[in-house]
Amino acid sequence: MLSNRSLVLFPAIILSLLTCLTAGASALQCRQALRSDVQTVKIEGRRFTFMAWNLKNVFTYQGKFEREDGMNNMRRAEGPEGAIRPKPMHEVRAVRDMLARKMPDFAVFTEIENVFSLRRLLEEDPRLQGQYHVFLKEGNDPRGIDIAFIVKKELGFNYKLDTHKDMTWTDRYKKEGKTIEETGPLFSRDLPVLKVYQPGSDQPAMIIMGNHAKSQRDREGDPNSTRWRMRQYEAIAEILESYKAVSPNAAIILAGDMNTDVRTSNEIKPIKTLIPSIYDIIDPAKKIPMKDRVTHSFFPWKGNPRYSQLDDIRALGLRELFEAQILPFLDSKGQPLPRPKNFKERESQQPSDHSPLWMEFAL
Fold first, then answer.
1. Cα gap 269→258, rounded to integer Å
2. Domains of the chain from N-terminus onward
3. pTM confidence score
4. How far is CA 247 from the centre of its chain?
5. 295-315 average pLDDT score
């Protein structure tokens, strides 16, 4: 079998305690994070909300990284030059404002350094404090930008967290007439999967797959890392099929930063019909025109701006889909900000270079 997972089934409070402790948090922090009065919510008749968002560099670490080889392996090194800095507080406040305004039931976040960093972002805001379980298993990215899930504690579900970080692949390419082979992790971060169970059930009601595909940074013999990303999507298709075979009645959600323009890219061909985008299956009256499905703004040096849909929520087996939105950032008066026209506007006005995605649905 292609998949290589570590599987552990726990009530949410136990799994959250484990993730908290492995992150090196204090016992007091763990106890505070786990305080809740859980009341199980029935699935029937309930509208659930879901967010996917690349939060951009939720770091607490300061240091730098040195690239080692073509498989994107890097070495963490101490020192001020080229340092990764904690996320600026004006960005943190804007992220908190968005989360407090929407209060999603479920969310997939990318570019999270560790459990402590995300817990700090949530727990130091009284509007968010004590509201969420956090699930994060540190992945392969040496810069520490991992994929995390948060779930409202009040829902009272049980959870199983799977990882695919140990899957490998061998890349082959020609260089100076010779065939070069490099073997390393297939998923440059991971493909973590959170399975959501109603208490007493051994079959998941929902399977959430978090994705942050390989970046478009050039590699030796692989411009834009296209070949690596295509192999990732082939593997995602195989993994998804394996989950469908074992849990045919579960809703499946694949969400996150796809790192390719999903409107036009051939790289996602393996999953394109297998698990459709919510922006394609929503009621036509609520459908966002293709040209307006922009989730990322990029401003290359001496080049034209690029506006792409790098992020997506894709879903199977939902009972009903009520909303499929790309959320705007707001100005100080609560009005939607226009799309940034340059790098300075983006960095000064937005907490991330990616927009948050939003879904309301029923199971």
1. 12
2. 9-362 (3.60.10.10)
3. 0.84
4. 22
5. 91
